[in-house]
Specification:
The complex is a heterodimer of chains A (385) and B (183). Chain A is mainly α and 385 residues long. Chain A folds into two domains: 83 residues, no CATH class; 285 residues, Cytochrome-c3 Hydrogenase, chain B, CATH 1.10.645. Chain A is built from 16 helices and six strands. In chain A, helix 5 packs antiparallel against helix 15 and helix 7 runs antiparallel to helix 12. Chain A is globular and about 65 Å long. In chain A, 50% of the residues are buried. Chain B has four helices and seven strands. Chain B is globular. The model of chain B has no long low-confidence stretch (mean pLDDT 82). The chains are: A mainly alpha (385), B alpha/beta (183). Chains A and B meet through helix 2, strand 4, strand 5 and strand 6 of A and strand 3, helix 3 and helix 4 of B.
Amino acid sequence: MSKEKGLETICITTGPTEVGDYVTLNIGPIHPAMHGTLRVITQTDGETVISAKPEIGYLHRGVEKLGENLTYSQFLPMTDRLNYCSAICNNVAYEMAVEKLLGIEVPPKAQLIRMIMMELARIADHQVCVGILGVDLGALTPFFYLIIQREEIYEIFEWHHGARLTNSMGAIGGVEADLPDRFHEKWPKMRDTIRRANDETDSLLTHNRIWMDRTIGVNAFCGDDALDWGFTGPMLRACGVRRDLRKDEPYLMYDKVDFEVPVGKHGDVFDRYMVRMLEMEESVKIIDQAYALYKELPDDAPLMKKMPKIIRPPEGQIYHAIESPNGELGFFIKSDGSDKPYRIKIRPPCYMVYQAFEDLVKGEMISDLIACLSSLNVIAGELDR
Amino acid sequence: MSLKERIEGILGRDLLELTEFRGDICVEIPKNRVIQALTMLKEEAGFDFLSDLFGIDNLDLYTKAKKKKKKSEDDEAQEPEEKGPPPPRFEVIYLLLSLSTNERLMVKVRVPEDDLELPSITGLWRAANWPEREVFDMFGVRFKGHPNLRRLLMWDEFQDHPLRKDYPLEGKGEERHLNYDIA
C-alpha cells in the first residue's frame, strides 16, 4: 500500500491473510471463463477452494453520476449498457420508474408490446446463460442450437426499433412503433423453433451423465441463506422460494396472462439450469397470450401518451422494480423538480448474488467455481454500473 | 390496519417523519437508533428482506433552495435569514420488502457531514455487505462494525468520493497519477 492517507488507511485493510500451505490463485479480470471483467482471488488447497474473494469495479463507468447530469430522456441509452444481454428489460424498467414518478399510465397497446419484447429478451438472456454454462463445462453443441434462436429474436428487435444489442426501445410514455408486419408471420414459426431448440438442448444435457455429475449438488444453497443475501430471480427460485415480481407485484398486464413460476429444490447448478429452461417455456406462453390480447385491440390504438418535450417530474422519490431475467431490477429516482434526476440508483440483481460468491464456492473444486460463475449469469455491465 | 398505522405503532417515538409519494412510503428514523428500529421493522412489522441500501448527497438541494429564497428576497422586502444548524448533508436509505405481504418501505437516516458514521447492519442482513461498502466508496459514510469496509468500485488508492455533488463529473484527473506498487 502507498503512503499515508489519513482516514482511508484505517479503512483499507485487506482481510486476514491465511497462513499455511495454501496457494493464492488469481482468476481474471481477463480470462475467457470470467465473463467480461470479473476477478476472483482464491486461496486453494490442492484443487479445493478455501476462500474466494471477488473484486469488482473493472467496468465501472459511473452510470449513476452520469444520470445526474443527463435529462430523463437522455439517460435511456445508458440503461442499455447495464445488462447488455437483455437491454430491453432495463429500458422498460427505467421508463416505468419515470412513469411512476410522473404518475402516468401508458396505453394498453404499448404495455402489450413492451411485454412481448421483454419476454423475447428474457428468452434471449436465458439462452445465452444456458449456452455459456454448457460451453464452460465443455458441452459446445447446445450453444449453437440456442444461439441460432437468439439470432432470430435479435432479428425481430431489429425490425421493431432498428438495434440488435443496445436496443433503447420505447420512450417515456409508451413505445415508438407498432409490432412490425413481419412479426405476425414470423412468430408462429418461431415459437416452434424456440421450443425445438430447447428440446434439443434438453435432450443433449439434462440426462447426460457427465452433465449431471458436473452440476447436481454443486454449490447447493438453501432458501433462507439466499433471502438473507438478497437473492432474487432464478437464483432464488432455484433455492425453492417461489417469488416472482410478475406474480407478486404485477406490472404492465402480467396479471391478465396465465403462467407458472418454476422453482427448484436444492439451489445447485442443475436447479438453476432447469429453472432457466422452464422459464423460457413460460415466456413463450406469455408471449402467445399477450399477442392474443394485442390482436383484440384496434389497429389504430394509441402507442404513446402525449408527453411534454422536456420532462419535469414533481419533487419526490420513488422506487420501482421489475422482474428482469436475472431477478429484481429496480430504479430509485429522486427528483428535485428540474429536468434532470437528482439521484438515480440502480438495483442490479446480480450485484446481490455475486457478493455471496465466497459462500457459494467455499469447499468446492476450482472447476466447480467456473460452473458456479456461469450459472449465476453475472453481467459485469450491470454489476459495476 | 393500514401499513402507515402499523408502522406508526411499531416505531413509536423513533418515527421522525412519514412521507408518501405515489404510494411509496418513506419513514425517517434517528441516527442513533438505526439498529433498534430496523430490528423492530424486521421482526415485528415483517419487513424481512433488504432490497437495497444507498446514499444521497443533499448538498445541491439546499444550495438551490437558498438561491431561490435569495431571489424572492431581492424581489420583496429583505427578511432576516433563518439561523439554526444546517440540515444534515447526507441521507442513507434502506429499501425494505415484506415477502409475505409484498409491501415496500423506504427507511431514511440523515447523516451530518461532521459525523459520517453509521452502525453496520450486516448483522441483520448479510445482503448489506457490498451496498455499505459502496456507500463508503461513493459518499464517505463509514459503517461501524462492517467486516471488510474497503472501497468497492473505485480502486483502493482513490482519495475522493465520486457521487458527492461537489465532485466534478469529469473527475479530478486521478487516472493520470496512478501509482502502482510493482513488487
